[in-house]
Design brief:
This protein is of the alpha+beta class. 19% of the residues lie in helices and 37% in strands. Strand 7 (150-155) and strand 8 (158-167) form a beta hairpin.
């Protein structure tokens, strides 16, 4: 059997699954679960598990170590960034006494030259965006944002992670949890400071 770059060649169906895993990781910052693979291809979870096992046996994916979902493509490089503290709605960012380095897939990052940091989430204000309590979010340090971006922003009420919308001379911050009271909120643009844009997340086991 021919060996391609040290890996056995894929069947057309296996390649489709691998392409989906890579694309999902690029768009979401974490690999798809077996149920998400099954739903995309309209197959059973058992069939999806079979394809992922074949990809693993051929060396194209590994079991995610620091990412708790599905399979991690072996071709993705990682980069270490500092986990600086905790972020919760309406409170200052709580720094960690001894910041630690965490490894993140390079595919999460918007570019290779930006300044990135990580924060651990406290609360469920962005659960509708797939960000849950105790997730580690990856943030690109920047002070500008586009409508619909999820940003780390500091207001008079403290730091928070919310969706950003510019409305004339005001900014509206929206939560990703319909059960949250008091959101959305509007602020004069001069009364808040953007500290970074959300790029993706790491969900530890």
């Amino acid at each position: 059997m021919q060996i391609v770059n040290g890996q056995r060649p894929l069947t057309p169906d296996q390649k489709k699954v691998l392409d989906f895993i890579n694309q999902f990781l690029l768009e979401n910052g974490y690999p798809p679960s077996l149920s998400e693979i099954a739903r995309h291809f309209r197959k059973s979870i058992g069939t999806s598990q079979h394809f992922v096992r074949e990809l693993r046996e051929k060396g194209y994916v590994t079991k995610g170590s620091n990412i708790s979902r599905g399979a991690q493509p072996t071709s993705f490089e990682s980069r270490k960034i500092f986990l600086l503290g905790y972020i919760a709605a309406g409170r200052p960012i709580e720094p960690i006494e001894n910041p630690e380095l965490v490894s993140v897939p390079s595919s999460i990052l918007m570019d290779q030259w930006g300044n990135y940091y990580a924060l651990r989430v406290r609360g469920t204000s962005m659960i509708g965006e797939g960000i849950i309590d105790n997730d580690i979010i990856v943030v690109r340090h920047q002070n500008i944002a586009q409508n619909g971006d999820i940003v780390v922003v500091v207001t008079n009420n403290g730091a928070t992670l919310k969706k950003f919308y510019k409305l004339g001379d005001k900014v509206e911050l929206r939560a990703g949890n319909k059960k949250m009271r008091g959101w959305p909120r509007q602020f004069h643009a001069g009364n808040l400071e953007i500290r970074g844009k959300f790029c993706g997340l790491i969900r530890k086991d």
